[in-house]
């Protein structure tokens, strides 16, 4: 098994869950995502992108990181290119760090959709900002290790059939959820969270740590 930790350009805070996900992972930075490396105390094995948004005042040692450089006018985002590089190197699972927030809402949406596609293709993928985590929900049953009282939502990317939420303040039992419904927003863990989905595309958005104050 080979887990790759992809540094993206969105917001990222260091938490114990981030440290656990980093342990044993190989690391690739996507363009501005290199700015998170010093905060995490890591040096990526590869730095990918068009390098049009590189942060200032990076450690001099980062100049030695191998790079794959692409033109600014291209068909893929820097994040997609970093993911492709990880898959080429044998990634069997991915953590997309810095996948939420940042200046580009379109990139954040892409990361959500891309995580679903990767999971459907057989590559388990987690999205994280440190404070928030996203987990694609495939048909079947998934157990989560989140603490009692944690806020979570299920985001539907289609109509959902046979959705069951156990271990929740507001449990659901084999319900149908229309696309665009708010039924599955803002729930809380009560005990051990287990989610079952029979059909549809969805993502669990969890809040394991309070969002930092700005």
UniProtKB/TrEMBL annotation:
Residues 140-203 form the Thiamin pyrophosphokinase thiamin-binding domain. It holds the Pfam family TPK_catalytic. Its EC number is 2.7.6.2. One of its GO terms (molecular function) is thiamine diphosphokinase activity. This is Thiamine diphosphokinase. The lineage of its organism: Bacteria, Pseudomonadati, Pseudomonadota, Alphaproteobacteria, Hyphomicrobiales. Keywords: ATP-binding, Kinase, Nucleotide-binding, Transferase. InterPro entries: Thi_PPkinase, Thiamin_PyroPKinase_B1-bd, TPK, TPK_B1-bd_sf, TPK_catalytic, TPK_catalytic_sf. It comes from Mesorhizobium zhangyense.
């Amino acid at each position: 098994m080979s887990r790759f930790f992809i540094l993206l350009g969105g917001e990222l805070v260091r938490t114990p869950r981030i440290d656990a996900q980093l342990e044993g992972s190989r690391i690739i930075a996507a363009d501005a995502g290199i700015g998170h490396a010093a905060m995490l105390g890591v040096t990526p094995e590869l730095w990918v992108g068009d390098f049009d948004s590189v942060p200032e005042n990076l450690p001099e040692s980062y100049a030695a990181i191998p790079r794959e450089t692409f033109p600014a006018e291209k068909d893929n985002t820097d994040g997609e290119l970093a993911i492709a590089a990880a898959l080429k190197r044998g990634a069997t699972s991915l953590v997309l760090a810095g996948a939420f927030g940042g200046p580009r809402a379109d990139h954040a949406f892409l990361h959500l959709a891309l995580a679903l596609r990767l999971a459907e293709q057989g590559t388990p993928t987690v999205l994280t900002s440190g404070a928030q985590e996203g987990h694609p929900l495939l048909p079947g049953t998934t157990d989560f290790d989140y603490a009692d009282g944690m806020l979570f939502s299920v985001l539907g990317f289609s109509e959902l059939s046979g959705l069951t939420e156990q271990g929740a303040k507001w449990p659901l039992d084999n319900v149908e959820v229309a696309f665009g419904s708010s039924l599955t927003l803002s729930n809380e863990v009560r005990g051990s969270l287990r989610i079952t989905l029979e059909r549809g595309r969805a993502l669990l958005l969890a809040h394991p740590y309070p969002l930092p104050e700005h």
